[in-house]
């Protein structure tokens, strides 16, 4: 019996010495993945979409929203390949736990080659009864103003830029007009019904001269808070943030 007890004691000592190293390794979990949505916003064209060399879908038409693709943090290569032409490629930096959209669209100049821009989903908490909308200018038109429910809320938004607003949940109308103009809109009015606790990503696409102007949208959920509505909201412009006064559109 004595040797057996001694043997158990020695084994226990070895386990106790090795255990801290095992616990230390387990306490450093891998980074959470990010999610990437791919939006095809080029009228009259179709593409095979590849992520890191893997074909995700072939013959993707305008208006298609692919994903979300769950990707490890870091750089990822996305390619849009069309028959008879060089693929459009983009290198996307995926952040841990962050949702982003990659949008292939036309530039402001008519006849220009498609470009790809990344728009991060704005996921800050919303007050109860509120919704968020991101409106991006991805159409072949000069800088434009954005009008919501008849009020101009963002001015001089250029191709590739975007604006963000928090609004009371419910139905709204949005229009895009030439910058500084009050005449008929380039696009709209477009009716959108915003659900509380969501962010609606809106992309204006196409060219007014050929009747291809339209919008592509998709919706994501965001957390809500019991705190009062913010007095200011961030609005984005080509990745650079500035501050704008919050305006309520419709009943609160």
Q: What does this molecule look like?
A:
The chain is mainly β and about 250 residues long. It has one helix at about 1-25; strands spanning about 35-40, 45-50, 55-60, 65-70, 75-80, 90-95, 100-105, 115-120, 130-135, 145-150, 150-155, 160-170, 170-180, 185-195, 200-205, 215-220, 230-235, 240-245. It has two domains: about 30-120, Immunoglobulin-like; about 120-245, Immunoglobulin-like (Sandwich), CATH 2.60.40. The chain has a four-stranded mixed β-sheet with strand order 4-1-7-8, with no helix packed on it. Strands 3-2-5-6 form a four-stranded antiparallel β-sheet, with no helix packed on it. A hairpin with a 2-residue loop joins β10 and β11. The N and C termini lie far apart (about 80 Å). Mean pLDDT is about 80; it is low at about 1-30 and about 230-250.
List its traits.
252 residues, mainly beta, Immunoglobulin-like, 2 domains, four-stranded mixed β-sheet, four-stranded antiparallel β-sheet, 1 helix, disordered C terminus
